[in-house]
Design brief:
Blueprint: H1 2-6, H2 11-18, E1 24-26, H3 27-39, H4 43-54, E2 58-60, H5 66-78, H6 85-96, E3 100-101, E4 114-115
Parallel strand pairs: 1-2, 3-4
Length: about 120
């Protein structure tokens, strides 16, 4: 989502193409955005932008993705292919909610993930 706020990579065009009602972010993504705002040179401005953004997009809780997170992390660890826990939680959330994940990162290692 950082690319959305920076106006990069045509994120707004992608959102418009699928419709804002079909776009969601994970609680993990929200936490990462809030951290980025807190660490920025202008936390007030960035928190305001995040709050405005949240008026239009739904935040999906991670609770229903915890089992998928655990099984995927165990599978990836056995294969020696671990990825960051936050990225794994975001991917697991997309999987259990049967959502397409739009990302700038590599989630290829996850089972059953759909990318756009």
């Amino acid at each position: 989502m950082i690319f959305f706020f920076k106006g990069k990579q045509n994120v707004l065009d992608k959102i418009k193409a699928v419709g804002i009602d079909n776009c969601y972010i994970s609680e993990i993504t929200l936490a990462e955005l809030k951290y980025g705002a807190a660490f920025s040179q202008n936390p007030t401005k960035h928190n305001t932008q995040i709050e405005q953004f949240l008026q239009y997009i739904s935040v999906i809780p991670i609770t229903n993705a915890i089992d998928k997170f655990a099984t995927e992390k165990a599978r990836l660890r056995r294969a020696g292919q671990l990825i960051d826990d936050f990225d794994l939680l975001i991917g697991a959330t997309a999987i259990v909610n049967e959502l397409t994940l739009i990302t700038n990162f590599n989630f290829i290692k996850l089972s059953y993930i759909i990318f756009s």
